[in-house]
Amino acid sequence: MRLLSASLLLPALLFAAPAARAHAFLDHASPAVGSTLRQPPTAISLWFTQELEPAFSTVSIVDQGGQRVDGGDAQVDARDQTLLHASLKPLPPGTYKVMWRVVSIDTHTTEGTFTFRVGG
Amino acid sequence: MTRFLFRAAALVGFALTLPGPEAMAHGFAGERFFPATLLTDDPFVADEMSLPTLTRNPTGADGAQELDVEVDLAKRITPRIGLTIRDQWQYVQPKDASPVTGFNALSTGVQYQLFVDGPREAIGLVGLNTTWGHTGRVQALGAPDFTTLTPTFDFGKGFGDLPDSLPYLRSFAVTGNLSVDFPTKVESSGSPNPNTFNYGFAVEYSLEYLQHHVQDVGLGKPFDRMIPLVEVALTTPFNRGQGSQTTGTVQPGLIWAGQHYQLGAEMIIPVNSLSGHGVGGIVQLHFFLDDLFPKSIGRPIFD
C-alpha cells in the first residue's frame, strides 16, 4: 500500500504543475465535420481546444477541382481565441475540403482536414 | 521501499531538470495522433512519462502470481533523437512459497526518428534498447545477470488516406514493433539465453479521428478522445535449443488521450499455456511532458 501511495504521489506533483497550454485539437466546426447541407454556408467556423496564435493559424477551403472557395480572410476571433473563422464564396452543390493548420499559444502545431457537402 | 522512491525520484528529477529550446508534437504524423500504447513500443520520439503503469499479470506458467509497478520516461535530445529509461518493481508470489519483491533490470534506449510522412500518416523509428545485467534482483526474482542489446524498428500507419468512399475505415491505425534480443551471455546458471525475435502490433480505432476528421457523429466528452485498441506482442527464441517456444499476450483495451495526460487500461490474455493462465490487467497513467512543460523540459535539449 505504501508503494502504491508513493507511485501515485509523483503523478499528483505533475498534475499540480503550473497551468500549461497544449496541442490544439479541433473541438467542433460549423459546418460540421462530414455534414451535408441543403443551403450553402456563407462562412466557416472552427472551435479548438486551446487558444490559437493568430499569426500562424489558418484555414482554407477548396472545391473538388482544388480551387479556393474561401474569402482568404481566415482569422482568429478577437474575443474568443479558440475560434478560427473565414468567409466563403457562394458555393454551388458539391463536396468541399477544409484544411486547417493552427499553432496554439505555446507554439505547438496541429493540422487537419475534413469535408462537407452542399446539396443533395 | 527506499530504493523504489530513490529510483522514482531520480527518474522524475531527470525529467524536470533538463532544459531545452524547442518543442514539437508527440505522436503525430500529419493529422494522425498516435497514442502511447501500453504493451508495444511507440514509433515516435517524445517527451513523455508513464507514471505509474500497474500490471496484474496472468498466473505464470509455473503458477506464480505477479504484480508490477513500472515507470517509463522518454526524453528528446534533438527533434529526431530520443532517450528512454524504464524500471519496474515487482511483487512475485511463487506457488507454494513466500512472496518476493524487488526490482527487475533497468532498461534504457536510444532512438532515431527515421521518417514522419504527414500526408500518408506514416511514421518510423529505429532504436537500440539495452537491458542492463545485475541491475535487478538476480537470485530472488530472476532478473538477468547479463546485459541484452535489442535493436528495434517501430512503425505506425494511419488509414486517413483511404478513399472518401470508406469513411469509417479512415479512423483505423496500426503500429508495430520488430526487434531481436542479443544477450551478452549465452547461459546463466546452466540455462541457455537464446536470441529471440520479438514482434508485436496494435490495431487502433480513433474516435477522435472519426469525430473531428471524418464525420461528426455527435460524440461528446470524454468519448471523442477515446481510442479502443487491441495489442499483441509475441516473442520467439530461435537458437540454443529454445526454438519455437513462442510466448506472448493479446491485450484488448481502451485509451483516453486528453490534453496533458492519457489513461489506458487493457486486459492481458496469454496466447498459450507457456505464457500463463487466466486473465490479467494493466492500467497506465501517462503524461505528455511537452504539453505540461512546453517551455522547459517538454522541448528537445538541442534544436
Chart the SSEs and their pairings.
The complex is a heterodimer of chains A (120) and B (303).
Chain A: H1 2-15, E1 26-30, E2 36-37, E3 43-48, E4 58-62, E5 75-76, E6 83-87, E7 94-103, E8 109-118
Chain B: H1 2-17, E1 28-29, E2 32-33, E3 48-56, E4 65-76, E5 81-93, E6 100-103, E7 107-117, E8 122-131, H2 138-141, E9 148-158, E10 172-183, E11 187-188, E12 191-192, E13 196-205, H3 207-214, E14 226-237, E15 247-257, E16 261-270, E17 280-288, H4 289-292
Antiparallel strand pairs in B: 1-2, 3-4, 3-17, 4-5, 5-6, 5-7, 7-8, 8-9, 9-10, 10-13, 11-12, 13-14, 14-15, 15-16, 16-17
Structural class of chain B: mainly beta
Sketch the topology of chain B as an H/E string, one letter per element: HEEEEEEEEHEEEEEHEEEEH
Question: Largest beta sheet of chain B, briefly?
Answer: 12 strands, antiparallel, barrel
Low-confidence runs of at least 5 consecutive residues of chain B? 8-25
Count structural domains of chain A: 1
Strand content of chain A: 35-45%
| CATH-defined superfamily of chain B | monomeric porin ompg
End-to-end separation of chain B in angstroms reads 38 Å
Sheet with the most strands: spatial strand order of chain B:
3-4-5-7-8-9-10-13-14-15-16-17
**Rg of chain B:** 20 Å
Instruction: Classify the helix fraction of chain B into a percent range.
Output: 10-25%
Largest interface: A-B, 38 and 42 residues
Describe the main β-sheet of chain A briefly. Answer: 4 strands, antiparallel
Number of strands of chain A: 8
Shape of chain A: elongated
Please tell me about this protein's structure:
The complex is a heterodimer of chains A (120) and B (303). Chain A is built from 1 helix and 8 strands; from the N terminus they run αββββββββ. Chain B has 4 helices and 17 strands. Chain B is globular. Chain B is mainly beta. In chain B, the strands form 3 sheets. Chain B has a 12-stranded antiparallel barrel with strand order 3-4-5-7-8-9-10-13-14-15-16-17. In chain B, strands 1-2 form a two-stranded antiparallel sheet. A two-stranded antiparallel sheet of chain B has the order 11-12. The interface between A and B is large, with 38 and 42 residues.
